[in-house]
Amino acid sequence: MNIYFSGIGGVGIGPLAEIARDAGYEILGSDLYPGLMTEQLEHSGAQVHIGPQDGEFLRTSHHAKSIDWFIYTAALPDNHPELVLARELGIRTGKRDDLLAHIITEKQLKLIAISGSHGKTTTTGMMIWALQQLGITVSYSIGTTISFGPSGLFEPTSEYFVYECDEFDKNFLRYQPYLSLITSIEHDHFDTFPTEDDYFTSFRQFAEQSSHVIAWQQEQGQIFDGLAHATLLGIDEVNNELHLPGAHNRRNATLVQAGLHQLGLTESSDSILNNFPGTDRRFEKLAENLYSDYGHNPAEIAATLQLASELNHQVVLVYQPHQNIRQHEIKDQYTNQFEAAETVYWLPTYLSREDPSLTILPPEELIQTLTNKDRVIIADFDDALWAAIEQARADGKLVICMGAGAIDGWVRDRLKA
Known about the structure:
By secondary structure, the chain is α/β, with parallel strands linked by helices. The protein contains 15 helices and 18 strands. It folds into three domains: 93 residues, NAD(P)-binding Rossmann-like Domain (Rossmann fold, 3-Layer(aba) Sandwich), CATH 3.40.50.720; 166 residues, Mur-like, catalytic domain (UDP-N-acetylmuramoyl-L-alanine:D-glutamate ligase, 3-Layer(aba) Sandwich); 133 residues, Mur ligase, C-terminal domain (Protein-Tyrosine Phosphatase, Chain A), CATH 3.90.190.20.
């Protein structure tokens, strides 16, 4: 099968392209900009077009050798030139989860799905790490880069496929997992799930499609009432022998251990998980006293600051909100989540996939309900902010640069400079 990936360098599409390649398919694709993923794919022999995605590379490639499937993300607009052309050419089109579900079924793999509102990436990384350390051959896909393997991997001899199973666009309902680990459930992705009931009902359906489910009783018991195949853990079951920093990390690791036990892997994994190296963009250490984190909603902010406070009593947060449309939905939820930070530098919101009819909310409006707004400094990506970060680090304070937008790249570029 010859598969074309639009946006082949993305965090979701890139690993999928790697998996498809390793599974024996021919792959090619396009992206607006080069990056580590496009370089890796080109190095492995894939045809990658960098530049305007106007359809010309797709057309030329299809005429040279017929393309069987055009794969794209939910973020691709319906009038995107490549998608429009693929349909005109009669090429089968599908989103990334359509292809991954096909591969899992065709290769007869048992899917271990990691889902939930928060902590999916870290928990997925922990499960991959633990299985590898236990000597289990595993295929997987994770939505970030990791130090102990590629972002996407297909191993022909594997029995299991570990997947960070996202609820956005109801992607997770395309699967029938063998085992699902659900980290937390809190109404999110309002564009896909307008009401809390919509969100919870979809998780209930996801659980019903799974053969085995492990989740947390305290937060989610009512959603899974009556499911005989669901194991619900109490908060008192968090493993106190785990020494990972951050209460949420210890909870995620406990969930992974319960999953390993469900798979019949009863060997103690405390030391394995205590040595988990982490994943990129999840409290990732960039330099002394400087960390990058992907958190972009109140619950994640609070959890990451709690983690940081275990390591240093003086924490400085540089926060870039993500998506104006999301800020309209969560602005009233910004309350006491920032209390663990002695100073918060608040940046303008990163804009992506926006509703043009919505007024862009300025930082001054977003901080109004904060219980510690007196500690907030309105900032921008400039020399003054970088000087403040450097001074805080020099004073022995822990600085977290947080957000799902441009902040991570800005910090890394400053470090290089």
